[in-house]
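Teaching assistant's notes for section 4

Start the section by putting this record on the projector. Ask students to predict, before seeing the second block, whether peptidoglycan lytic exotransglycosylase will look compact or extended. Collect guesses on the board.
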Amino acid sequence: MRGIQGFCKTKSAAIIAALFLLGGCVRLVPEGSAPRPVTPPTPPAVKPATAALTGVMRGPVVAGLGFKPDNTAAALQAFATSCPRLTKRTDNSGLTRPEDWAPACAAAATWPAGESARFFTTYFETAEVGDGAAFVTGYFEPEIAGSRTRQPGFDVPVYALPKDLVRAKPGDAQPLPDGKMPLGRYDDAGVFTAYHDRGQIEDGALQGKGLELAWAADPVEFFFLQIQGSGRLRAPDGSVIRLGFAGQNGHAYTGIGSLMRERGLIGSSPGQYSGSMQGIQQYLRDFPDAGRQLMRQNRSYVFFRELTGPGPVGALNVPIAGRSTVAADPAFVPLGAPVWLQVDRKEASGLWVAQDTGGAIQGANRFDSFWGAGPEARQIAGGMSARGRALILLPKGTLARLGQQ
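Reveal the predicted structure now:
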């Protein structure tokens, strides 16, 4: 999802992966038609950063963290929801193995909610990745005006994932730092190239392909729904279409808030706009032409699928919950792991579960907190920017196996 506000957010949910497309590849031509170009040598593979490579230290005992009953009960429920995935998937952080989670997951299925704090003290130990210094933003499930059919006032297309958006075949492009092949498309001549970016899509690159799931009313609201990675469309007749993250065009995510700050548009001085989501949206509405060009600086574009199940779905493909789910970088946090945040925003401090990812949620101790839906969730997520300390809760015995005493 992930989306994100700093964003989502991944969020999922999430969210949303910001993949960096590299330069065009060399196309091989039949012998005799043209000299065969020399393919540059592939640079040696660089191991992507992970929690295991960054360094992990044992943290304080779980019992001393200062749990609150309502918070731990919600975290226990979120953890139990994640267990079917957690005990089967590979942990890209290098910290855990699927079997490490089996005892806690077996107990979580029947553990009394009223004794949730005892559950976490029984089965977990804390770990600090790197220096533990955390930065937390927020995301939510937005609801904006939309319609299944195009009609006056509803003319912003909501696209499904295009079939021609694919990963390059080995040899057709340089791999990304994480070893994956980049996303893009093959043109009519069979050459792998970057996929259409936000500006090209808005100018009609996908028209006539039958990809329209629905139509939104407001391009600014839809831009932020894409950043969040999931949301709801409310039709004039009151019906609701729930949208979930389906994919992304392969272009790197660019936060327009950072661009506005660099240009002196946001800040605390007179004449500047707030750096919150609300402040950024106000600028985009006050200056529609400049705002449209600013949004196009974020070349990343998110595609959706219609959701019919309960709640938005995160990167673990399980429903996520407001005030329980955080998006995290799976290279540094095992997806499904509980996370303890002690930050300078009271509402964001406490126990969360890493169930989502996001394109801008990268690196150790970078989190995006999910707040659910509605005006309050929008307000909190839109202004969330918190710093403090993060601890990952790992199954007891994990740190000893990793060599931590």
